[in-house]
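Notebook, bench 3.
Goal today: get a predicted structure for Orotate phosphoribosyltransferase from candidate division WOR-3 bacterium so we can plan the truncation constructs. The sequence was checked against the plasmid map this morning, with no discrepancies at the termini. Length recorded as 244 residues. Pasting the sequence as submitted so the record is complete.
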Amino acid sequence: MDPKGWENKRVQFAEELTTFYFEAINESTGRKAFSFGDFLLADGSISPYYFDFRTMYSYPEYLMKIVDMIITCIEYNIFQHKKENFNPLTVTQRIAGIPNASLGLAALVSASLRIPSFYCDMKPLYTESRYAIQGSLKPGDNVLILDDLITTGMRKMETIKIIRECGGNVQAVIVVIDRQEGGKEVLHEKGIKLHSLITASEFAEIAYKKGLINEAEKTTIIQHIRQRRQRKGLGTKLVLFDYL
């Protein structure tokens, strides 16, 4: 198992994952898991499109395929040299979810790998980081953080801060979608690797090729990414399927 092998599998899964986001529909609102509009994100910015992972919980077949792909990502990039009787707990002692969208996802991956999980409650009422840990974390534990997506990395850094203050060691962050708005670079500055199943620009390219969005909608996604990156002083060249 090597990074190249993972990249090949990721590319193969990307088209299927993109289709999931157009087929999964919230029957209460009639909105697909991916939609265009004006959306207020957690960092206070407005986005012309939105990825709603919560909708996937009503589509167990799609959800479990995503879980399986995340496990493949972990096997390739975290465990690396998995053998027949390999015990995941020798490498990773905890999996951390981030409220709220990814908690179910983290729980499913945790149960599949038999690795204990927890999440960090970000409520400001906690005066000490240890009280924010919902579950169990011991000093020295290696922790893998899972989330549905990353934008600026703000929530990830809050989680990392709590884990480190409690003595945990963050191995990496794995997300379903990287919106490519600076989160990867923020994590990199702190020495933490980000792995994603797909990036927003890859999603746009695949959706356009499959006829799921038109050229103007594809341009909307790409321009938004580039504008956000430019404001942060980041590169605006978006390379498809070479994102390790």
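The longest strand covers residues 169-178. The two ends are 15 Å apart (CA to CA).
Flagging this for group meeting.
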